[in-house]
Amino acid sequence: MQFLKPGILSTIQDTGRNAYRYSGINPNGAMDKTAARLLNILLGNHENEAVLECHFPAPEILFEEAAIIAIGGADFAPYLSNENGGISPINNWQAIQVPAGNTLKFRKRISGQCAYLAVKEGIQAQAWLGSKSTNSLLNFNTIRSRQRFALSSTNPSAFLPYLGLSIRPPYGASPMIRLIKGNEYDLLTNDSRALLQSQPFTISPQSNRMGYRLMGEALQLSEKTELVSSAVDFGTVQLLPDGQMIILMADHQTTGGYPRVGHVISVDLPLLAQCGPKDTIRFQCISAAEAEDLLILREKEMKKLKATIRFMNII
Fold first, then answer.
1. What is the rounded radius of gyration, in angstroms, for the C-alpha atoms of the chain?
2. What is the separation of C-alpha 58 from the centre of its chain, rounded to a whole number of angstroms?
3. Which helix (H) or strand (E) holds 172?
4. Contact between residue 231 and residue 150 where contact means Cβ atoms under 8 Å apart
5. pLDDT for 72-116, tens place per residue?
6. Are 133 and 31 in contact (CB under 8 A)?
7. Alpha-carbon distance 162 to 88, whole Å?
8. What is the DSSP string of 107-157?
9. Which of 101, 164, 191, 269 is the most buried (most CB within 10 A)?
10. Is residue 94 within a helix (H) or strand (E), and if so which, with residue range?
11. Helices 33-42, 288-314: crossing angle, 10 deg rounding
């Protein structure tokens, strides 16, 4: 496939390079890993296979050979344009047969921030430390105009499954994001603990794949304290010196020295990833046991989907 236009912040992503944080190497990976995994499972790929993550304005991609694809996450109104100028709208969350010579385009942003394109058998990009995820600091797997990525040849298929609503992340405007209390949560004043779970927070335009800066009434610590830099993760909520918060995202650093007042639960990270500048979110604290139960339930549903797709590909 050839990128006629690279789009804004189009990157190759998988579930990230997670085994090298001890060396200070950040994990990268998809912002909405659940969407990426679901699309790969839908196509019968390994769920860690590389996908394209794109923002709007999105790329234009020429498929020089026939392929089977699936698109999900954000809705950017995708469609195919053939060599004769014909246009065919594409359903999100469905396997689609793309004839050779068709160009994938996106008409407008309807909802969400990150759309994902998965290709049957995967995108043949380079791997580094076990991951194909783009690392922009090292200029690794960055996407340029007219760049090509090879695709494995696939035969036409009569089985083009569609992903129902029940298993997709429940995206929506102004989502409620659930937190586990962080190590320094108890350092917040009583008023600030109440504000954390009662007021809406707006995502600042100064946000990116490294972190979402939030704007709201400033939170306060009961006393000033010096902290040793400690491990952080995708979803760690840190309190900045000005009383505002930042949520670390997919390209986060490996350690941080700001108070960790909470951690977004894994199940809600996709909802957060699909929010963007000027969107609002609210927080609700739950227990680690509740967060674990929600994650187990999601993974069970993923396994059921995987087994169903595997079975349907056999018969």
1. 20
2. 15
3. none
4. no
5. 999 999 999 999 889 999 999 999 999 999 999 999 999 999 999
6. no
7. 17
8. ----EEEEEEEEETT-EE---BTTB---BGGGTBSB--TT-B-EE------
9. 269
10. none
11. 20
pLDDT digits (tens, 9 = 90+) for 39-68: 999 999 999 999 999 999 999 999 999 999
Question: Could you give the CA distance from residue 256 to residue 203 in angstroms, rounded to a whole number?
Answer: 20
Sign, CA dihedral 234-236-241-243, equals positive
> Where do we find the tokens 């298993």?
167
In sequence order, the 6+-apart residues with CB closer than 8 A to the CB of 72 are 35, 38, 39, 92, 93, 115, 116, 118, 163, 168
Whether this prediction's pTM lies above 0.90 is answered by yes
- Asked if 89 contacts 51 with a C-beta cutoff of 8 angstroms, the reply is no
User: Which pLDDT does position 152 carry in this prediction?
Assistant: 83
Cα separation, 311 vs 29, in Å, equals: 29
- Which of 212, 211, 215, 213 is closest to 201 using CA atoms? 215
* Identity of the residue numbered 181: K
At 267, the amino acid letter reads V
Report residue 271 as tokens: 């909802």
